[in-house]
Structure formats: structure tokens, C-alpha cells
Amino acid sequence: MDFTKVQSVGNDFVLVESREDAFDWKSLALAICDRHYGVGSDGLLVLLPSLKADFRMRIFNADGSEAEACGNGLRCLVHHLITTGMAPGEMLSIETYGGIRIAQVTLINGSPNIKIGMGVPILEPDEIPVEIDSDLGDRICGMISNYPVEANGKQLNLNFVSMGNPHAVCFIDDAVADFPLNIIGPMIERNSMFPKRTNLEVVRVINHGTVEMRVWERGVGETLACGTGACAVAVAGWILGRTGNRVDIKLPGGQLTADWCGQGEVYLSGRAETVFNGSWLK
Length: 282
Ligand SMILES: N[C@@H](CCC[C@H](N)C(=O)O)C(=O)O
Description:
By secondary structure, the protein is an alpha+beta fold. Helix content is 15%, strand content 43%. It has helices at 25-32, 71-83, 181-189, 227-239, and strands at residues 2-8, 11-17, 43-48, 55-61, 66-67, 91-96, 99-108, 111-117, 138-140, 143-145, 147-151, 154-162, 166-171, 199-207, 210-217, 221-223, 246-251, 254-259, 267-270, 273-279. The strands form 2 sheets. The chain has an 18-stranded mixed β-sheet that branches. A hairpin with a 7-residue loop joins strand 18 and strand 19. The protein starts with a strand and ends with a strand. Ligand LBFN2T5F is lined by residues 11, 43, 59, 61, 67, 70-73, 165, 199, 217-220, 226-228. The site of the ligand N[C@@H](CCC[C@H](N)C(=O)O)C(=O)O has 18 residues, from strand 4, helix 2 and helix 4.
């Protein structure tokens, strides 16, 4: 099986093209994402034909679980479609479980910048999904915010947003580098209040247009970046009045930009890269 290794801001994926969807992608993800016995990546992207859009993408986490959405994966997939000449033009549509996403490609200093409409954020707890005690936290512009959850003796105030996939966003005052994400991340991911588990973002606001963030991804662990996580942070930051319509999100792997003006779709932009092609022999 031929594959392409792609990455965006250090969030890396193995991408395979297939005309057929009838395949055990879960087992392939578990094997190919393994950093010792496989190719090594945060996830597996499957590029498929679509009856509703130009292409279809499925995304599997390194633990084999399937996610509904993936911002960096989408941008990597679009980059692959452009570099292989498969893209029909500078605008293209991709079908995902979270809905159809439209990508727009522009050249910045000669290299493609990919901006994706990541859909309208979902704030309704049942749809995220998150099970909450209605006596706790606040409801601001529809978002359950400042919801207290204890983990490892620390009280976190969480904000819940779905970008098709679930996110818990936690604003902190100290540098994100000092946050014990390897301990608290798995505890929040698997807290029983999240029936489908969750991604966790810890965020420090630098100014209205800039934040720093680290992410613990559902089904992966800490990654260098997360596109849907960056979108969720922009939404939570806007609703809480901490950030404006455009936010530069500084991550361990680099920078993403998310645009949201309080309604409609969130737009995500940043770079993506093809790293190498290979053949999977197992
Ligand atoms: N890194 C991705 C998100 C991948 C899926 C996530 N781990 C989940 O299970 O929801 C992104 O860039 O959005």
C-alpha cells in the first residue's frame, strides 16, 4: 500500500488513497501510526471518492478510534491534492463526518496557504457531547463556560465547544509549558462526563489577537498542534471576551490562525507540508 507522510505545524499524519471504503482502517491506523513499529504519526487520513463533494476524508487517531473532524488533517489532505495535481482548482470541497468543508488555497510568498471553513461551532451540551450538572458553571452566549472539574487536586474551569469533535478549553494564567498536561490530559479525556471522551486545550491569552496553547488529543496524547482545537479556542476566547475576531494560536509545533466573528463558520489557516512517500509492506 502506497502512503504519503504529511504534517501541519508538527501534527503529523499518514495519508492513504483508496477507491474503496470497505477496509479495516482501524487496524491499519493502530499499526501504521505506531512510532516504533510503524511509520509513526498522530493519525491516519483516508482519501476517498465522494458523491457529495470533490473528495471525502476519514480520520483515525493513533489508537484506532475514528474522529468526526480534523483541521490540520484537512489542510494536509488539501496540500496533497494540490501537489499531486488532483485538486480541481483553488477552491475544493471535502466530505467529512462533521459535514462538507470548503478549502481555499492562496499563494503566500510562493507557497500554498490553505484556509478551511471548519463549520459552525456546536455549543449544546447534548450535541458536544458533555454531561453537565446544570447548577454548575455559567452559560454565556450558549456556551457552558467556567465549568469546574477537579483533576489531580487541581480545579480546572472548562469551556465546552464541539467543532464536530469534542473540545474542553481551559484558560490559565501561567505559561502553558508549566501545565502538567501528561497527568491531567488523560484524566480529562476519560472523565465520565464526556461519553465520547474529549480533547483538552490549555490556553494562556497573550493579547486580544494572540494566545499560546497546548493540546491533549483524544486518542493520541499530547500533540504539537490541533486545528479543531485552535478553532475551539478561538470560539471560547471570543465568547468570553478574551480574544477578538482573529487569533494567532502559538503551539509547540508552530502557529495557526483562526477567524470567528461570533457567528457562522470558523476559518482555520496555516501551512501544511508533504514529508515523504513510502510503501507499507506489513
Ligand atoms: N489534530 C486534529 C484533530 C484529530 C482528532 C482528535 N484527536 C479527536 O479525536 O477529536 C486537528 O487538527 O483538528
